[in-house]
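Protein modeling request. Please complete all fields; requests missing the sequence field cannot be processed.
Requester role: graduate student
Desired output: 3D structure, token encoding
Chains: 1
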Amino acid sequence: MSYAQGGTFKTGFITGAAGSLMGSATAGLGTGLQIGASAAFGGVVSELSGGNFWKGAAQAGIIAGFNHAAHALDERAAARLQKRILADGRLSLGEANEWFRKGGGRELTIDASKLDLGWVKDEGWVNGVKQVQSLYNSEDGLVHGQMTMTRFNAQRATIERGLYDFEQIRKYFDNFSRNTFTVIGGWFASNFGTSAGRSYWINYNGAALINLYKLYKPY
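Delivered output (219 residues):
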């Protein structure tokens, strides 16, 4: 930008670095103050390095606005969306896909006790650990799919965090059913291919309730 306006690359580089530095230093003080301080500092540095104060101020202000301030606004928007999505402690398919498009890859943490996992039975646990495929069995299955659970008593288990993405497992026909759901899910998550998305981790807070349809006998 500096070179295009009749300045030198060196002056523009130094000014841009100064503007970015001030933008980082004033993060959290408000967008207006952040941009203003960056512009003023960039102008001074431009003048001292042989350039024009006002051109330097404009360059530094633009850098602060499009980099640091825009990032801060994005963070605030993501925080508001996250608060709305997790208000009930659960994650619906629509909410999961919305976060895939707008969450920027940030993690989500949900309440494990609110998942539909009461149907998980006693069979199949190895040293207290079990791979649970919830796709066909749970009302939450389309979001969480396969989960790794660690049991600590007859009716409670923790869940390892899982990645919400739409990657294929090996060759397509190695796991035809799962990969077909993945293709369809990715299609819907991206608004029929019109929006980009980023995978993200889902963390499970607390314990899931399991084995709810069997009378609990402690001994």
